[in-house]
Amino acid sequence: MTNVTMTVNGKSVSAPAEGRTLLVEYLRTGLGLTGTHVGCDTSQCGACVVHVDGRAVKSCTVFAMDVEGSDVRTIEGMANADGSLGVVQQAFQDHHGLQCGFCTPGMVMTTAALLAENPRPSEAEVRHGLEGNICRCTGYHNIVKAVLAASGQDADAIAAQ
Amino acid sequence: MHNFEFVKPSSIADAVAAMSTEGAQPLSGGQTLLPTMKQRLAAPEVLVSLTGIAELQGVCMGEGGLHIGAATPHAVVAREALAHYPALASLAGGIGDPAVRNRGTIGGSVANNDPAACYPAAVLASGATVVTDRRRIAAEDYFQGMFTTALEEGEFITQVIFPIPQAAAYVKFNQPASRFALTAVFVAKFADGVRVAVTGASNNGVFRWEEAEAALSADFAAGAIAGLTVPSDDMISDLHGSAAYRANLVKVLTGRAVTAAR
Q1: Which fold has domain B5-49?
Q2: Phi-psi category of B214—alpha, beta or left, where left has phi over 0 and alpha has psi -120 to 50?
Q3: Cβ atoms of residues B31 and B100 within 8 Å
Q4: B149 lies within 8 A of chain A by CB
Q5: B176 falls in which pLDDT band (50, 70, 90)?
Q6: Cβ proximity of B165 and B35 under 8 Å
Q7: Which residues on B lie below 8 Å from A18 (Cβ)?
Q8: Pick the CATH number of A87-156 from 1.10.150.120, 3.80.10.10, 3.40.50.300, 1.20.1440.230
Q9: What is the CATH number of domain B56-162?
Q10: What number is the ipTM of this complex?
Q11: Could B102 and A57 be called an inter-chain contact, meaning their C-beta atoms sit closer than 8 Å?
């Protein structure tokens, strides 16, 4: 085991890792950041999505050592500085964009990356952008509404069209 | 997953040295290799990450066409190839999902040569050149059947050079669960003829449909292939589609690609 250092949610952190240690294991076991979930462990479901240097990646399919020195952001880094919910999180709450909540961390992280690249996506672009995130409860309707609302658009009006 | 020694060189020369170690395997974006290792279908003793090498990153026009560094992620190709080779950019933007496109690389895809991967169709239809740490390989010589390429032990791709066609399109019939190609066709029209490459269909991996190339070189219109039939003997048959279904898709998608080519 060697110590692997990176920046996570704005703080420099260090934790032991082997070659095979996945980024998600490093975050959950090494740092105790259990908000990032492991759903399928096969890069299908997207529950483990985090940002590495601003880009959404599936942390179950990246080795911790391969992103040593990177700037990583997880769901724990999505709240506002005063602890209140961030814009994307609040939109998911307002529009009931979750049922069991297991996929939510990945949905929120993918949404934040999508909106950073495309601030006012169409409904089709939202659905395309969320292709790599699976909601086992099939709650996509409200998730899409939440993403549209987080982008400042009138989700109900778009849904009514 | 079995453990291994992780090495991350910062230059091609250091990567060549690391790859000369017994049991070494190159790692690019890892979007196929990590799942393969989790299933213990691969168990390298040394994993040499190629993602920290600046020389392997980026998209630029150069001698012979569009040069793409082997460790360039699909998302970057989708953005940066758009102005030079729109059909290739569109292909890159349709691989997997956004998170996979941020990690997976062109070099990794071409080295793996999955029979349903997208990039091999672009490489073969464009008549691209695969550049490695030791030589340049023409697309025709590079692909040697499902998961099989001309790459030798320890050899790794550094760059792929795409000649730019006059018009081209990639039309993919998605396998919706995996987002690989159930079947997909890349059509590229050059001054000296049309090239048609098919992925996702054949048990032998990516292939050129030469009959269609001849017909389309004479008349670049979807109707030009109307009289052709695609034999289903060597086609993949699985729960997603029979061999006959895939053979039919080859023809249908080729027509659509010709219509969409620009």
Answers
A1: 3.30.43
A2: alpha
A3: yes
A4: no
A5: confident
A6: no
A7: 3
A8: 1.10.150.120
A9: 3.30.465.10
A10: 0.95
A11: yes
